[in-house]
Backbone:
C-alpha cells in the first residue's frame, strides 16, 4: 500500500460509488425499495447464501462458480445485501470479499475445529469459562454474515438456531452460584440477532445478580448489518449499562451506515470497543492497521484488541507470522495516537488464555541499568 492515505475507507468516493452500484443492482433484482434496504429483517431474509444467487450480482468464472459451490456444500455461507454491496469484485484481494465469499483454500488441511477447547471449558448451560472472574454465554449460532475466518465456524451448521431458554436459565443460574464472576460477555454467533425482548430477559436476570458488575455484548452488526442498531436497542443497552464489543477489520468496512450505527450507540452513552483480527491479505499491513484504528478513533470507537489469528480448521490462508504483527505494532509507536494502538494478543491453544505480544527490542538491560530505543531509533540510557 505504501502509505495510510492509500488505504481505502468506506467514505472514499470509490467506496460510495461501488456501494451504490451494487446496492441498486440488488434492489432491482429483488424489486425492493430503500425502505426495505434499511430494514434489518429484510436484510436477513434476503441474505445471499448460494452460488446461483451470488452469480446474479457478480461475473464469476466457471472455476470460481464451481469452487464456491463445492466449499459452500461443506461450510455454509450467508452475506447480507448490505455487506455484499461493499465488495469490489475487480479486486482479487478485496478485504470484504476475502472475509465473506467461500474460497477453495478452505479445504487445505490445517488447524482444529475447536482450537480454544471451548467445549471443554463449558461448566454449565452455554457457558465458556477460561478465567475465574469472567465468562461467555453463547446465545446463538446465527450471524448476519459468516466470516470465513470465524473461530466458531464449527457451530454454524446448516441452520440458524438461538440458544434455548432452558440453556440460558442454566447459564444464569451457574453465574448466580459463582460469586467470583464479575463480568459476563453475551455473544454467539452474533448476539444482536436476538430480539430486544430476548436480550432484555438475559440482561435483566444478569443485572439481578449482585456480583455481576459488567455486562458486555459481542456483535459484528455494526459492520455487517448496521440497520440493526436503532434507538430502541440503544435504549435497552443503556438501561442495563451494557458495553459493546465489535469487529471492524478494515477501514473499508467503516461506512456512513456503520458510523450512523456507532453514533446511535455512543450518543446514548454506550462504550464501543473494537477487536480486530489480523488476517493475511485483509489487513496484515502496517498502514492498513494504522488507518483503520485512526478511523475508529475519529468515530469514537476504542481500539481494544488486535487478535493474532487462531489455528481454526480451514483458515490456513488467513494465517500471519507473529513477526508481522510485532512489526505492525512497532510501526504504530510514535506514528499514531496511543488511543489508536490496540493490544496485540495471542490466544493460547487449549483455552489457556490471552498473551499480550509486545516488541521488546526497544529495551535492553545490563549491569549499568537500562537502555531504551525510541520510535526514531534514538538511544535513552537510565541507570
Residues:
Amino acid at each position: 500500500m505504501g502509505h495510510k492515505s492509500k488505504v481505502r475507507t468506506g467514505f472514499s468516493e470509490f467506496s460510495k460509488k461501488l456501494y451504490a452500484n451494487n446496492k441498486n443492482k440488488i434492489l432491482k433484482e429483488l424489486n425492493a425499495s430503500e425502505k426495505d434496504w434499511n430494514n434489518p429483517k429484510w436484510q436477513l431474509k434476503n441474505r445471499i447464501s448460494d452460488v446461483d444467487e451470488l452469480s446474479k450480482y457478480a461475473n464469476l468464472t466457471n472455476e470460481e462458480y464451481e469452487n464456491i459451490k463445492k466449499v459452500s456444500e461443506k461450510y455454509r455461507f450467508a452475506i447480507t445485501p448490505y455487506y455484499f454491496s461493499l465488495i469490489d469484485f475487480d479486486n482479487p484481494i478485496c478485504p470484504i470479499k476475502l472475509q465473506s465469499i467461500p474460497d477453495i483454500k478452505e479445504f487445505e488441511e490445517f488447524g482444529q475445529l475447536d482450537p480454544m477447547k471451548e467445549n471443554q471449558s463449558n461448566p454449565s448451560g452455554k457457558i465458556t469459562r477460561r478465567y475465574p472472574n469472567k465468562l461467555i454465554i453463547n446465545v446463538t449460532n446465527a450471524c448476519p454474515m459468516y466470516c470465513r475466518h470465524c473461530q466458531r465456524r464449527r457451530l454454524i451448521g446448516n441452520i440458524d438456531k438461538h440458544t434455548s431458554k432452558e440453556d440460558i436459565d442454566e447459564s444464569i443460574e451457574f453465574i448466580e452460584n459463582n460469586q467470583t464472576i464479575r463480568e459476563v460477555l453475551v455473544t454467539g454467533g452474533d448476539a444482536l440477532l436476538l430480539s430486544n425482548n430476548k436480550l432484555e430477559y438475559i440482561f435483566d436476570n444478569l443485572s439481578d445478580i449482585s456480583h455481576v458488575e459488567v455486562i458486555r455484548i459481542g456483535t459484528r452488526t455494526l459492520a455487517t448489518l448496521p440497520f440493526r442498531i436503532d434507538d430502541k436497542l440503544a435504549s435497552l443497552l443503556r438501561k442495563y449499562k451494557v458495553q459493546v464489543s465489535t469487529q471492524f477489520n478494515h477501514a473499508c468496512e467503516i461506512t456512513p451506515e456503520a458510523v450512523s450505527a456507532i453514533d446511535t450507540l455512543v450518543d446514548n452513552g454506550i462504550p464501543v470497543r473494537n477487536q480486530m483480527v489480523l488476517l493475511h491479505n485483509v489487513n496484515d499491513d502496517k498502514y492498513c492497521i494504522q488507518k483503520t484504528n485512526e478511523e475508529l478513533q475519529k468515530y469514537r470507537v476504542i481500539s481494544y484488541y488486535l487478535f493474532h489469528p487462531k489455528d481454526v480448521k480451514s483458515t490456513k490462508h488467513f494465517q500471519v507470522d507473529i513477526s508481522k504483527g510485532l512489526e505492525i505494532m512497532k510501526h504504530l509507536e510514535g506514528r499514531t495516537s496511543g488511543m489508536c494502538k490496540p493490544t496485540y494478543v495471542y490466544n493460547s491453544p487449549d483455552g489457556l488464555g490471552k498473551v499480550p505480544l509486545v516488541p521488546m527490542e526497544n529495551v535492553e538491560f545490563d549491569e549499568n541499568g537500562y537502555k531504551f530505543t525510541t520510535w526514531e531509533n534514538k538511544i535513552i540510557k537510565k541507570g
The first strand starts at residue 127 and ends at 128. The chain is about 35% helix and 15% strand.
